[in-house]
Amino acid sequence: MDLKQLLDGNEIIINENILDIKEFVYDSRNAKEDSLFFALKGKTSDGHSFVNDAYEKGVRAFVIEDDLDFKDDACYIKVKDTRKALSRMSNIFFSKASEHLKVIGVTGTKGKTTTANYIYEMLNIISIPTGIIGTNGAFYGNISEDIINTTPESYEIHRLFSNMIKAGMKFAVMEVSSQALMLDRVSDVKFDLVIFTNIHRDHIGPKEHKDFDDYMNNKKKLFNMAPVAVINEDDEKIVEMASSTNAKLIGVSTKHETNYYAQNIEFSDDLINLYTNFEMNGKDYELPVVGIFNVYNAIQMIASLEYFGIEDNIIRSNLHSLYVKGRMELIQVNGRVFVLDYAHNQISLESTLNILNKYKTGKIITVVGTVGGRSEERRKELAEVSSVLSDISIFTSDNPDYEDPLKICLEMKSYYSGKIEAIAEPDREKAIFKAYDLSNENDIILIAGKGHEEYQIIKGEHVHYSDRESINKIIDREAVNS
C-alpha cells in the first residue's frame, strides 16, 4: 500500500518519499525492507531506541513521536501518539475489516474467556462461521494462531479480522483486556455489541494500572465503543461502570428481575457428572458445568445471541455441547480428581475453591503460583484464599519471567495461614507430583493458574510446559507401578 494512503493530514512528514508498504512492525527484531516501523512507548521500553536497528535491517519508513537523528534516505511520520497511529493505520491497511464482521467484545475481571468461548462455540455449532481472539489464542475456520497477549496489538487484531473474512467468518468475538483499552489496541475496531462480566481489584502495579480507579476507567471505555452492551447488573460497580454510556443496555442477573433473570438455580451433587439447571423467562436451561459464574457467562451469551436474532430454542438445545479448555477440566487418577483451572487471581481462585468445597469428601490440595514482575498484590491474595479454602497449599511457578521463582513462592508462603504448613516448590511439574504424592483416594487436587496454556514465561521466553502433560506423566508412572 502507498504510504500516503495511510495518512490523515495531521502528521508531520520528514523526508517525504513515495514508499510501498507491505507490512507494519513494532519490534525491531522483525524489521525488514518495505515495512513501516512504529516506535511504540511502553512501561519498560521505548521503540524510539530501536529505530536505528530497524533502519539497519532495511526499514525506510518510521512512525515516531520524538525527534531523532534523521537519515536522509528515510521517511519519518511524526505523530502525537504512535499507539493511536498504529491502530488507525492498521484499520486502513486491512480495509477496515471489522466493519465487515459482526464483532462482539467481552471485558471484565473474570469470565471473559468463558463467555467469549461460549459465544464462539455456540455460533459455530449452529453453523454460523465465527472466529475468536483471546486468552486461548486466535481461531477461525480450521486455522489457529498463538498470540502473546489476551488482546494483541492493533495491527494483529486487524490482520486477524482480515484473515477471518477471507476464511468466510461472519462473526468475531474478542476478549478485551484493560491493557488493550489503555494502550489503544481496539480504538479503531467497530464493535456491534460488548459484554461486561464483572470487575474486581486486579492488574494493579507499576507495569499495569496505577490503581483500581485507573483499571476501572479503562474498562469503562468499551461501553462507548458499541451501540449495545450486555451488562451484569449484580456487579457492585455496575452503576458506576455504565453511568456515562449511550449504549443500549441489556441486563442480566441471578438476583432480580431484568431482561435476563436466571432463577431456581440447581447444581449437580456429583463432581464427575457436572450440570447446572436454571429457569429464565419461563424456560428451563441446563449447562454441562457448575458454578454461579458459569450461569452468568451463559446468560450473557444467550442475551447477546438473541440480540442478533438467534432463537432461544436453538441455543437451549445446544447448551450441552459447550466446553472451554482449561476451565474446571477434570482428570481422574486412582480415585483422586485433578482439576485444571485457569483461576489466577483472588476472585477466580475463590470461586473455584468454593465450588470444589461443595463436593469435598477428602482433602483439597491446591497448587498455585503467580506471575513475576507484576500484579504483586496477587501473591498475598492467592495465598490468603488458599489458606482458607484448601487443606494443603503448594506454591509454585506461573510465568515467573525475570523474577526468581523461588522468591515468588516464598513470598506467597509468607502470607499463608493454613493449619498444615505450605510447600514452596518452584518447579511446577515437581509441585504437581508432590500434590499427588500427598493425596489419598477421594482427594481433589486443584492445579490453578495455567489452565489451557502450554508454556511458562521464563526470562522473556515462552518455554513449553503443560499441566496436562505433567498429570499424564503421573498416570504413566502409576501404570508402571501398579
Secondary-structure map:
Elements: E1 12-14, E2 23-25, E3 35-38, H1 51-56, E4 61-64, E5 75-78, H2 82-93, E6 102-107, H3 112-125, E7 130-134, E8 137-140, E9 143-145, H4 154-166, E10 171-175, H5 178-182, E11 193-196, H6 212-220, E12 228-232, H7 238-242, E13 248-253, E14 260-267, E15 276-280, E16 283-287, H8 292-307, H9 312-317, E17 329-333, E18 336-341, H10 346-358, E19 364-370, H11 377-389, E20 392-397, H12 405-414, E21 423-424, H13 428-437, E22 444-448, E23 455-458, E24 461-464, H14 467-481
Parallel strand pairs: 2-3, 3-4, 4-5, 6-10, 6-11, 7-10, 11-12, 12-13, 13-14, 18-22, 19-20, 19-22, 20-21
Antiparallel strand pairs: 1-5, 7-8, 8-9, 14-15, 15-16, 17-18, 23-24
Helix pairs in contact: 2-4, 3-8, 10-11, 11-12, 13-14
CATH architecture of the largest domain: 3-Layer(aba) Sandwich
> Segments where pLDDT lies below 50 for 5+ residues?
none
Approximately how much beta-strand content do the residues carry? 15-25%
Helix proportion range? 25-40%
The averaged pLDDT comes out at 91
Give the overall shape: globular
Determine and state the CATH class of the largest domain: Alpha Beta
Count of DSSP strands: 24
**What's the CATH H-level superfamily name of the largest domain?**
Mur-like, catalytic domain
Q: Within the CATH hierarchy, at the fold level, what is the topology of the largest domain?
A: UDP-N-acetylmuramoyl-L-alanine:D-glutamate ligase
